[in-house]
Design brief:
Elements: E1 2-5, E2 12-20, H1 37-47, E3 49-57, E4 62-72, E5 77-84, E6 97-102, E7 111-116, E8 120-126, E9 131-137, E10 143-152, E11 155-163, E12 169-178, H2 187-201, H3 203-206, H4 211-218, E13 226-235, E14 238-246, E15 252-261, H5 264-274, E16 288-292, E17 295-300, E18 303-311, H6 321-338
Length: 340
Amino acid sequence: MTTIDATTTAVATTLEETTVATAARTLSLSYPVPVDASRLHDLADAYNGTWTGNWAEESGGSGELHAIVTIDPATRNASLSFSFTGDFLQGGAGAPDLIEMNIPDGTTPETLYVTSSMVGQTGYTYAGGTTAEVNSDLPANAGRVSADVSLRGDSASASYTVMSSSGTAVLGAGIIARGRVPEPIDLPAIAAGQLNANLYSGRYAANLLAVDEASAAVGEPIDAILTNGGNLVYGSGIAASNFQAKSVSGDLIIQVTVVRGVDTPSIQAYWATAHSPSLPSIPGIGDDAFAVANTLYVLAGNLIAEIQVLALTDAPTPLDPQTSQRNIAVAMVPRMRAAT
């Protein structure tokens, strides 16, 4: 279940780690809730019509985007006819699709279901205030995508990262406008902005470990990987990004800080300062590793992971903290080496 907070002015919506099936070319859809009757007329005037645009990804893929938006204030029905060309979301050429829904009025909690070739079966439950819960039952071969979506006036844009199960990340962006040709896509600028945002929020670190990997690493179910902020000026040429994860039992917590260097000399200089010659290296983990007190430090590529597994109660845990830390590091290292 993914919780989406959206403003009723439809200015900006953030989707974090929404599961998508890349091979099936799926997308997730959200909308502002609740929407009163007067606002519906404003939305219809602002968004009804034909929208065109384009998308591009770092892999070299690109194509066109086409959409027709219809909002009927009388019936509270909204529909989106959407199509694209090219290998969008790493999933092959797309067929036109139609998504329809009733916009909730906010007077009572309600759930609606949308079924389409792009989103599979997706349930939307109005949870009160400006929050909707989204639960997608999507096809197999799913990876992950994190996206930032902005809707302003007569244009909408999105920057996203498709993350395969192997940890390969591909940055992409799309922009679409009503009744005009939208601005060109500047992927380098988007990449720089998204990197800083991901580092600062903790999403950068959280993308380096999956829930099932964390569960296997500590020997018991983990509830979720939670972003925990970051610091863009952690040192000279160094930024930090954090995540944490608690066990379902509540008996332990994983805390990880991922330190990123802008280049190899920066991260090597930081590592040389952190890794005192008096501390022996631990073989077989990343490019180098050592431990101090309750923290395991692992260097891989231009990243360092500082890993803690801490007991929250007196209950025994399936594995000792050092074994759990090592297992987490082994799971993270391939993505750390592949990260940009």
